[in-house]
Specification:
Structural class: alpha+beta
CATH architecture of the largest domain: Alpha-Beta Barrel
CATH superfamily of the largest domain: D-amino Acid Aminotransferase, subunit A, domain 2
Largest sheet: 8 strands, mixed
Helix content: 25-40%
Number of strands: 14
Shape: globular
Number of domains: 2
Length: 269
Amino acid sequence: MAATLAILDGAVMAPADAQLPVTDEGFIRGDGAFEVIRLYDGKPYALDAHMTRMGGSAGNLRLPFDEGAVRADIITLIDAAGAPDAALRMIVTRGGRRVGLIEELKPLPDSISLASITYAPTRIMDGIKSLSYGANMLATRLAKEKDADEALLVTPHGRVLEGPTTSFFYSLDGETLHTPPLEDHILDSITRRLVIAVSGATERVTAAEDLASVTEAFMASTLREVHPVHAIDGRDLPAAPGPASALAAEQVRQRITEELAAMPAPASA
C-alpha cells in the first residue's frame, strides 16, 4: 500500500522524509511492535482495542511503550490528513522511535483463492504483532507460486490456523461459521472478535482434512472486513460469498457503522 503521509516522533512529514537510523534494531532485527487501524472518514475504528493490543505486544517484547505519545501522534496525523478512508499504521521500534503512516487502501478482488502453506508458529511470540513478519510474507509468496492469491497457514501436524495477515472463517453446512481456536497459537484479531460477536461463529479445532468439506469461507481483518474465498488448494467452493459469509459481512458492516456513528470526530492535536 502506498503511504501518503507520515509522522515521526510527533512531526508530520512526507513518507520519504521519515527516516530512521540504520542502527535501529527495529530495522536490523525486526524488533518492534505495530498496529494497523482502519480509518473511516478519518475516524479510527476500534482505536482503544488496537492500543491495548499494541501495549500488550510491547510488554511481551519488553519494549518501552508510551501509549499517550502514540495516541497524540494518531490525532496529529489524522488532523493533518483530513478525513480519509485509509489505513493507519503505527510502529514503535527498539530504537525508541515512533512512526505513523497513512496508507491508501489496497484494491481487493471480490473473492480470493487460498493455498495451504506449512507453517510452525513460534510460541514465544504468541499474541505479539511484531515487525518480524518475514515468515508471513514468504508464506504469501509461496501461495502465489501455487497460483493462489493468499496463503492458509497449516501446522506440520495438520492444524489449520489463519492467513498471514487475516483470520480464517469457514462453514461446513452453509449455516454455522467456525474459526480455529486461539489455543492453536493464532493472533487474537480484533476483527476476528467482531465476527464472532455478531455472527455467533464458534471456535473449532480445524484439521487440514476438513478443508475438503468446506462449503464456504472468508478471511477477516481490519482492512478487509469480510473477504470471501472462492477456492482452497485448487478446489472451487460452491459459493463466494456463501449465505453465512454474506450475512456475516452484513452484520460486521452494520456493527462498524453503528460504532462509528457513536464516535466523536477525532480531536485536533
